[in-house]
Specification:
Length: 306
């Protein structure tokens, strides 16, 4: 009898369980924990062990407290259900397993509901240093510990509000071309702001500048580079600069922005929403990031259903 091969492992790019769900159009999935291979857990263990001393040196205090509060395991991939039991009583946030990319409006709408779309696959062992797409290490060791902090969690919800305001501000436009043009500008502004804060943000700390952005906190190499290197420009965050600044990917960020506190960050997102209402995000500088059709479509669909 031919042997049935049971696909094992939830490795990024080699996870039939996730890929098949995506092909069926299922965005929200469950984390079938038994599917992780020994190698998957070993990759987590090595990533965690390697970066831990750098967190202690360069991460903001809230992040380190978040790691403790969630009791994030160091030697195996965490179960999202275990994380959520600890996280939800703190800020109402939950990590929610997804099969892949969540189009822009749906992503921000999740944040508004205090749900964080979370990748469940983990990078292959030969790509420990860099993976262009998020994996469970980036999402649960980089993002989720920050969600234990009240003001930061509220800031994410405010980003979600911004997406709804974008829809509200464009739903009345009769010309679909003009609606698409404005939404493209607004999405670009929001994406840049999100990139330079939630993904790559720096904060003034009691012992100097520290990191709170998840792209930094999940990267062994870039975390140190962001704080120590002379090749990085670090400036106080100004909205007009950030929304017009191209966000580069695939290499270490040459330019980073600093906030004073999470209350300060919340106020900045609040101000971003007021700028949107005043039409100040309708014409931002062209350039990166490109806005994928599926992101624009998600906002257009939401505007059409208003
Ligand atoms: Fe991220």
């Amino acid at each position: 009898m031919p042997q049935t091969l049971v696909p094992q492992g939830l490795t990024t790019g080699h996870a039939p369980f996730v890929e098949e769900a995506r092909d069926r159009g299922e965005l929200y999935i469950s984390q079938v924990y038994e599917l992780y291979s020994k190698e998957n857990h070993e990759v987590w263990r090595q990533l965690y062990q390697r970066i831990r001393p750098r967190w202690e040196r360069y991460a903001n205090d809230h992040f380190l407290r978040g790691i403790q509060a969630l009791n994030l395991p160091s030697d195996r991939i965490p179960r999202l259900s275990e994380i959520n039991l600890k996280l939800q009583p703190l800020t109402g946030f939950q990590a929610k397993a997804v099969s892949g990319y969540v189009p822009g409006f749906l992503f921000f709408d999740c944040l508004r509901r205090r749900e964080f779309p979370t990748t469940i696959t983990i990078r292959p062992a030969d790509k420990m240093d860099y993976l262009p797409e998020p994996d469970i290490f980036h999402d649960t060791a980089g993002h989720v510990p920050m969600h234990t902090e009240r003001a930061f969690a509220d800031t994410l919800v405010r980003f979600g509000d911004c997406a709804h305001t974008a829809v509200e501000m464009t739903a009345h436009l009769r010309d679909p071309k003009e609606r698409a043009r404005r939404l493209t500008n607004i999405i670009r502004a929001m994406s840049r702001f999100f990139w330079f804060t939630v993904e790559f943000g720096l904060m003034r700390g009691p012992h100097g500048t520290c990191a709170y952005g998840s792209g930094l906190l999940s990267s062994y190499g870039e975390l140190e580079h962001a704080i120590e290197s002379d090749e990085v420009g670090r400036y106080p965050l100004q909205i007009e600069w950030v929304i017009n600044q191209g966000a580069e990917i695939d290499h270490y960020q040459p330019l980073l922005f600093i906030v004073d506190s999470f209350e300060h960050l919340f106020d900045l997102v609040d101000q971003l929403e007021r700028w949107m209402r005043a039409g100040k995000l309708n014409n931002v500088a062209p350039g990166l990031p490109e806005i994928p059709e599926r992101d624009l479509r998600s906002f257009m669909d939401a505007a059409e259903s208003v």
